[in-house]
Amino acid sequence: MAYFIESYVVVEMASAKAEKALSQGGNRPLGRLSGPIFTRPEHLAVFATHASTSRGRLYPEPESATRTCYQRDRDRVIHSTAFRRLKHKTQVFVQHEGDYYRTRLTHSLEVAQIARSLARVLALDEDLAEVLALAHDLGHTPFGHAGEEALNAATIDFGGFDHNAHALRLVTKLEHRYAEFDGLNLTWETLEGLVKHNGPLQPPLAGPVASFDKRWPLDVRNWSSLEAQVAALSDDIAYVNHDIDDGLRAELFTIDDLANAPLVGEMVKSIRARYGTLELGRFIGELVRTLMSVLVEDLLSETRQRLAEARLTSAEDVRRQKRALAAFSPRASEDVAALKRFLFAHMYRHPRVMVPMGRAQVLVTELFAALSADPALLPSDWSAQCGSTGDAVTGGVVRDYIAGMTDSFAMLEYNRVFHTSIAL
Question: Which domains can be identified in the chain, with CATH numbers?
Answer without folding.
Answer: 69-143+164-349 (1.10.3210.10), 352-418 (no CATH)
